[in-house]
């Protein structure tokens, strides 16, 4: 009786170890024998992945559109089409109204300009001058006085500023060499 194992669980780990080693050894043998084919296959899959995904997405989109088209009947599609047409018509009317308002504003501006030109010409023929240099807003304030000058602004930099001297102290200053030393020749 001592020859038989007391627990069946004792035999299972040995079988699992044998199974694991056989799977590992067979996969290593396959890689050794077909390694280059596997590498080339993986590279091909990676290279053509984008085009395959695009085709897959197109097929999926077409299938979804077909399901969507079958799901809704012709009456629903007709009512949706009519609603879209009504919305387009409404938007077109709004745009046409805005364009008409803009056109009337432009016509009014042109009329005002034309009136100003007529007034300027009448002033010119009366000897009052042709086209005043003073603008309409300035005439209301003070037609005889020039506009007041603005207050004196703060200078942008100090008077003793030199861009070649730098601002970080004497270590950053640029020094120029002598011009035209006579002992070396050349130079002016």
From TrEMBL:
It is found in: Cytoplasm; Endoplasmic reticulum membrane. Residues 82-96, 107-125 have a biased composition (Basic and acidic residues). Keywords: Cytoplasm, Endoplasmic reticulum, Membrane, Selenocysteine, Transmembrane, Transmembrane helix. Residues 97-106 have a biased composition (Low complexity). Gene3D superfamilies: 6.10.250.2950. Residues 78-188 are annotated as: Disordered. Residues 178-188 have a biased composition (Gly residues). The chain crosses the membrane at residues 34-52. Its main location: cytoplasm. It is a single-pass membrane protein. InterPro entries: Selenoprotein_S. PANTHER family: SELENOPROTEIN S. Belongs to the selenoprotein S family. This is Selenoprotein S-like isoform X1. The gene is LOC106805702.
């Amino acid at each position: 009786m001592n020859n038989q194992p007391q627990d069946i669980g004792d035999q299972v780990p040995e079988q699992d170890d044998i199974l694991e080693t056989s799977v590992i050894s067979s996969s290593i043998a396959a890689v050794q024998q077909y390694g280059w084919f596997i590498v080339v296959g993986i590279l091909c899959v990676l290279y053509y992945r984008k085009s395959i995904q695009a085709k897959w997405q197109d097929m999926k989109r077409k299938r979804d559109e077909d399901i969507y088209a079958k799901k809704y009947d012709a009456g629903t599609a007709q009512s949706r089409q009519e609603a879209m047409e009504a919305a387009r018509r409404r938007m077109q009317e709004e745009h046409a109204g805005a364009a008409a308002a803009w056109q009337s504003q432009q016509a009014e501006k042109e009329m005002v300009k034309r009136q100003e030109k007529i007034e300027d010409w009448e002033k010119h023929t009366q000897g009052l001058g042709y086209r005043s240099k003073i603008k309409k807003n300035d005439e209301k304030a003070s037609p005889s006085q020039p506009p007041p000058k603005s207050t004196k602004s703060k200078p942008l930099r100090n008077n003793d500023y030199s861009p070649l001297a730098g601002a970080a102290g004497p270590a950053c200053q640029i020094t120029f060499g002598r011009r035209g030393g006579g002992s070396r020749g050349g130079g002016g």
